[in-house]
Amino acid sequence: MTSSRPLREAHVHLAWRGRALGMLRLGNVASPRECLELVEAESHRLDARGAKDWLMGVQMRVESWSDPRWPTRSELDRVTAGRPAWLMSFDHHSLVANSAALKAAGFSDSSADPAGGVLGRNTDGRLTGLCLESACRRVREAAPEPPLAESREHVRAALADLHSLGFVEVHDLLTQPWLPPLLADLHDAGELPMRISLFPLVEHAAQVARDRAAWARPGLDLAGGKIFVDGTLNARTAWMLSPYADPLPDHPRGTPLLTSEQIADAILHCRSLGIGLAAHAIGDGAVRACLDAAERTHNAGSPRLRIEHAELIDEQDIPRFARLGVAASVQPCHLLYDIEALTRWLPHRLDRVLPLRDLLQAGLVPGRDLLFGSDTPIVRPNPEDSIIAAVRRARVPGSVGGPPCPPIAPEQTLTEAEAWACFRPS
User: Fold this and answer.
1) pLDDT tens across 59-97, in order?
2) How many CB atoms within 10 Å of residue 298?
3) CA torsion, points 383, 387, 388, 389, in degrees to nearest 10?
4) Average pLDDT estimate for 111-133
5) Is the dihedral angle over the CA atoms 154, 156, 157, 161 positive or is it negative?
């Protein structure tokens, strides 16, 4: 199941892809005990080197563990001996931190939940170390950023990795302001092996647009801004129209991060810059809010809205994509990793998971309006994972994510040709 034709990766995070390659990788861990053993061994390794670095782990999939619970702050304290440490879920929207990392981020037992975030607490009100959404981002960003020379090597490693998989075009969906000039330098040095479209956060888009003349190159340009409308399924923060089977306390339908009016404002702001907008929206509630904003601001011929992920879409909202000219930029490969979370948290909505067949029948065109990507480093960028998920709708022997399982919403299957077409540059 391979393709000899050029491919487009419609959702990557270049700098984080390269940076994550050097972090403690926990994707194959099967239990909290095994996780803590690996963290303790990594802490001893850093001590032996005399390194004062933070200990950072990635790719955790707690829902797939034999005991599906997060390690606790106190457990991490015991195995990290005072070194700041965090372990992040593969979705990058949730992590668990030890006491030193929480302190560096300014969190204590008396801290209130930050706007747009959740701090996990035990029955006594003390922090467990679990941090969701903006709380996760605050702890993650408390760790020192690598120097620019190191970031350059991270980006080069990510580009080489993606190019080896056949990608000739990638879309970077959380472009840091320092990244465009770095990519321009790589282009001028003959080290940019593909076309790249950039999507910085909306709050950075005007600055990046102002500086475009200095860094834009053939095949390297600003395509849109980026917003986050909700969280993720594994964290139970994706914004749903109906409650989760076992929701977070006080968040029965997840955590909306923006209103439809705020999304509309972002669309208009980006339109004033001559660019589109990419909106992270995983739950069906978030997708509807984006479509409501698109309807409110609809102007044929303007740079369009892309809804990123759209992992659940209510049946009533399917025809609105084509009618409003909204693209669906999805990552079918996530299905292979999310099956445990979906069946545990949303058993009543499995028929609305990645309704790809419905989207095509409603008028979206593969490769133009229905785009495939991976969201790497959330998961690996191998396009065959998304082909398996789109065509088989399940894990099969030899696929990633865990043991084989029954298909999820098999009526939404695509043909292999249709699935590959979603990776084709338009």
Assistant:
1) 888 888 889 899 999 999 999 988 999 999 888 888 999
2) 14
3) 100
4) 92
5) positive
Q: What is the pLDDT of residues 203-214, one digit of tens each?
A: 999 999 999 999
3-state DSSP call for residue 389?
Answer: helix
Identify whether the C-beta of residue 310 lies closer than 8 Å to the C-beta of residue 283. no
Strand 370-372 relative to strand 327-330, pairing = parallel
The string over 128-153, giving b where at least 16 C-beta atoms fall within 10 Å of a residue's C-beta and e elsewhere, is bbbbbbbbbbbbbebbeeeeeeebbe
Between CA 89 and CA 103 the distance in angstroms is 20
pTM above 0.70, yes or no: yes
Find residue 220's DSSP bridge partners: 196, 217
User: Where does residue 290 rank: exposed (0-12), middle (13-18), buried (19+ CB within 10 A)?
Assistant: buried
Strands (E), 260-314: 276-281, 305-309
* pLDDT interval class at 2 (50, 70, 90): low
What letter would DSSP give residue 352?
G
Start-to-end Cα distance in the chain: 21
CB 291 within 8 A of CB 326: yes
Tell me the C-alpha distance between 141 and 118, whole Å.
Answer: 16
What's the pLDDT score for residue 1? 54
Q: What is the edge-to-edge ordering of all strands in the sheet holding 305-309?
A: 224-228, 276-281, 305-309, 327-330, 370-372
The C-alpha angle with vertex 236 and arms to 232 and 239, in degrees rounded to 5, equals: 65
Compute the mean pLDDT over every residue in the chain, rounded to the nearest whole number.
94
Number of Cβ within a 10 Å radius of residue 411: 10
Select from 244, 281, 233 the least CA-distant residue to 260: 281
